[in-house]
Write a structure and sequence with these properties.
alpha+beta, conserved putative lor/sdh protein from methanococcus maripaludis s2 fold, OB fold (Dihydrolipoamide Acetyltransferase, E2P), 4-stranded antiparallel β-sheet, disordered C terminus
Amino acid sequence: MIPRHLFPRLGGLFVVFAGVLAGCGPAPPPVAETPPPPVSVSRALERKVVDFDNYEGRMGVAKTVEVRARVRGHVTKIHFQAGAIVKKGDPLYEIDPRPAQVNLGAAKAQVKAAEASLQFAKAEYNRTRVLIPSGASTREELESWSAKQAIAKGELLKAQAAVDQAQLDLEFTKITAPISGKLSRTQVDEGNLVNAGGGETLLTTLVSIDPIYVYFNVDERSLLRYRKRSRKETKTNVTQADLKELHIPVYVALEGEEGYPHKGEIDFADNRVNPNTGTIQARGVLSNAAQLFDDGMRARVRIPVGDPYKVVLVTERAIANDQGKKFVYVVAEQSTVQRRDVELGRLIDGLQAIQAGLQPDEWVIVNGIQRVREGLKVQPNRVPMPGVNKDSSTQN
């Protein structure tokens, strides 16, 4: 047994021994360093751009025609399908021509009768004139046949006019397209009687296709500015009435289209300003050879204002906000993040214009800005600038 007075000494030895054993064990592993966070960076673009005014508009056709029956009769043939594209002169409808043919024959018979009456009146006039010197006829009889001869001439002219009318009615039984364009559906079917009540029955409607108009409302000040700028560019002194001669460009996009791929010119502005809205209706004309536009379509319209200028552009997702201050992160030398406070301009074709604070060709963080801070090192992955529109109206 160990004497009790030796217990404190032995406890100290055990502590020393345990410390020696601990010092002889393996060292703890070092703490791993956090790798730099990955981010996507894009080069800030410098483009030559033009400022635009944007409007909402509606497409409108240049010509609209209501195709109506001009004679009474039954429809015997319909030569088109609903929505068909036709050319001027293409057949559309046929109305039973037999009644018109009968009327034409009767009118020609009236001409023959009128010609015979005129010939008889002329012969009697000449015979009476010869018999006057012998006393077999009187001056009164001569004047009577002269009047009858004039009446016969009038009846002949009337009969000839009736033939012309009957000929027109026969021609009207074949209805053709008055213009080239796109047809609506037919309002009548084969076998229907048209013009039963004496009116002109609506058969279908036809609208022109190319060119096509876009209508939109512009405030008076803007329209005057467009005119002034176009006069300066074209170096002309045309009046406001000659708006078409100014060649003011207009860019148009339909719903779902990116950018403004369709270009035309303003060719008309209304003759008065709406006093309730302070705007005036303007009209642009565009080519529709590809038949992309239909009457009544909604359209986005923009008109260039001012002269081209250079500006730095980045995607909107690169813009951050710090208590009202806008800034971007750029990756500088040694992959270090730097903050750039910027002044924003307007959106141009989906990209944000930077008026000040950023230089062209600097690499801007466009993805992962929530994982970085100023002075932090990152792993930059260079990608094209997001949101660059191929149909953009900006210029390199």
